[in-house]
């Protein structure tokens, strides 16, 4: 039986307040590679000891009260290759971290929300997506496994939201945003959840209003983009929706893909 590598992304929406949720999920599912977003904590406040006690090494790029990304490796510490997205030296927001973990080059990202629009936050979102596309173009064709994973804050298609009309004014669904995401995929990246679920709705985020999680009225905004080397080895993918139904949970659920190791890792 071939071994598998589980790669996951999880917007924890506050690693300090939701550390117990993260630790329960790590123990229950044992992913090999994890990207975290919205740490909302400074570098000094990252709970490294608790993460290590759970069996994971970690890299993180924190920011007090906002943003923040991290990469975890089960039984290993990721080897950093990049801290911050290139293209704008003046950008101080902690939204991108890249490292080698278990033979995979992983770009962990937290793409800007962009609301309200129009305005500077929406302009920043589009500029950030252009920078991401420029950087991703140099990664997709590499001869080894590469993954871009995280909270993209993009609803790619109407099937990815419970009620498209209710979100028409939101930055996550705007034509310019969707076009930028589609152009990213055209480089050769595979949107893993959509590829496996085809025309079936699948969500990764449910806001905290009107029991949307319990009623499964969600969005798909957390994505796992794989380069051709890695996408060829995909065995399964899914969303741990049960985590969203935990008391005081993040509004996102962990999203994962399983890779056949013997095919994925040169």
Automatic annotation (TrEMBL):
Q: Which GO terms describe its molecular function?
A: DNA binding; double-stranded DNA 3'-5' DNA exonuclease activity; endonuclease activity; metal ion binding
Endonuclease/exonuclease/phosphatase domain ranges (all copies): 8-252
Q: How is the cofactor bound?
A: Probably binds two magnesium or manganese ions per subunit.
Site (Interaction with DNA substrate) residue list: 252
Positions annotated as active site in the UniProt record: 110, 151 (proton donor/acceptor), 252 (proton acceptor)
Q: Does the keyword GTP-binding apply?
A: no
Cofactor annotation: Mg(2+); Mn(2+)
Give any single GO term for biological process: DNA repair
> What is the name of the protein in this document?
Exodeoxyribonuclease III
Site (Important for catalytic activity) found at 222
Task: Give the UniProt family note.
Answer: Belongs to the DNA repair enzymes AP/ExoA family.
Keyword annotations for this protein, in alphabetical order, are: Hydrolase, Magnesium, Manganese, Metal-binding
Q: Organism, per UniProt?
A: Luteimonas deserti
């Amino acid at each position: 039986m071939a071994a598998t590598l589980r790669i996951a992304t999880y917007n924890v929406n506050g690693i300090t307040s939701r550390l117990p949720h993260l630790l329960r999920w790590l123990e229950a599912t044992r992913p090999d590679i994890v990207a975290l977003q919205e740490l909302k904590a400074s570098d000094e406040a990252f709970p490294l000891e608790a993460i290590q006690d759970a069996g994971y090494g970690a890299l993180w790029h924190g920011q007090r009260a906002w943003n923040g990304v991290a990469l975890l490796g089960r039984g290993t510490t990721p080897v950093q290759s990049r801290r911050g997205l290139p293209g704008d030296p003046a950008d101080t927001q902690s939204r991108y971290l890249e490292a080698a973990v278990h033979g995979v080059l992983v770009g962990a990202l937290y793409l800007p929300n962009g609301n309200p629009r129009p305005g500077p936050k929406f302009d920043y979102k589009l500029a950030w997506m252009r920078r991401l596309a420029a950087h991703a173009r140099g990664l997709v064709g590499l001869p080894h496994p590469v993954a871009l994973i995280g909270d993209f804050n993009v609803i790619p298609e109407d099937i990815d939201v419970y009620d498209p009309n209710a979100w028409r004014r939101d930055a996550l669904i705007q034509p310019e945003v969707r076009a930028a995401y589609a152009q990213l995929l055209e480089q050769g990246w595979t949107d893993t959840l959509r590829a496996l679920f085809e025309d079936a709705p699948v969500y990764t985020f449910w806001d905290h209003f009107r029991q949307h999680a319990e009623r499964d009225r969600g969005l798909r905004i957390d994505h796992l983009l794989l380069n051709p080397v890695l996408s060829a080895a995909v065995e399964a993918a899914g969303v741990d929706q049960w985590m969203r139904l935990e008391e005081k949970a993040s509004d996102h659920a962990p999203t994962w893909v399983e890779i056949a190791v013997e095919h994925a890792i040169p």
